[in-house]
Amino acid sequence: MFGFDMNTLIANIPALLIGFAFHEYAHGWVADRLGDPTPRSQGRLTLNPLAHLDVFGTLMAFLYQFGWAKPVMTNPSYFKGDKRRGSMLVSLAGPVMNLIIAFVVFFLWYLTMHWMHGSEWSGTIALIFKSTVLMNLGLGVFNLLPIPPLDGFGILGGIVPERFAPQLQALEQYGMIILVILLFTNIIGILLFPAVNGIAYIYQTILTLVLSPFLGPLWLN
Predict the structure, then answer these.
(1) Per-residue pLDDT reduced to its tens digit, 156-180
(2) What does the chain look like in DSSP terms, one character per residue?
(3) pLDDT in tens, 194-203
(4) Can you tell me the distance from the alpha carbon of 175 to that of 199, in angstroms, rounded to the nearest whole number?
């Protein structure tokens, strides 16, 4: 599923730029809607991927399709209503956006291959679509892990009782160490590849059921 041939690595470039741009924009947009001017003032309320790239996180995503971008800075004191709920929604926005983008791109992949199947460029275009779907699924699922500095840790902070906040804050200082160990021992890959494959299968099943009666068989290769 995750090839490391040169064509796949090249196809990962637009996939990564799309995934990071929409992920971080979603964080900033939700924070902005909740009343926090910080993302807008720091130029993060944009779909320009260059504003969001983190060197190490980008390298991980480029090679393994699991990674992270430069975090969008927020100030929860500006949030309207419950501050913990607001922080949780901001954290949740990025991974949810990636899962939505993956579905939309899967849909466009289906339509494009319906019209271009068998053409000279169909293989290259299909590879770009495939990489974009898998990259966004990988970013979405990976960032839901409850490990700092990933979004899942922010979501966890909004779910667990507030009395556990000191323990969560203490864990933050070890987050990157834990994350690097899990990445380089491939534990994360073992855990997340089945989840990514499972969601991709669900998406394909939905699109096949909905679109096949109108467009015929699903040509994605």
Answers:
(1) 988 988 888 788 888 888 888 888 8
(2) ----SHHHHHHHHHHHHHHHHHHHHHHHHHHHHTT--HHHHTT-SS--GGGT--HHHHHHHHHHS----PPPP--GGG-SS-HHHHHHHHHHHHHHHHHHHHHHHHHHHHHHHHHHTTSTTHHHHHHHHHHHHHHHHHHHHHTTSSSTTSHHHHHHHHHS-GGGHHHHHHHHTTHHHHHHHHHHTTHHHHHHHHHHHHHHHHHHHHHHHHHHHHH-S----
(3) 999 999 999 9
(4) 27
Closest among 74, 80, 192, 205 to 142, alpha carbons compared: 192
**What are the residue numbers of the active site?**
24
Q: What are the sequence ranges of the domains in the chain?
A: 6-215
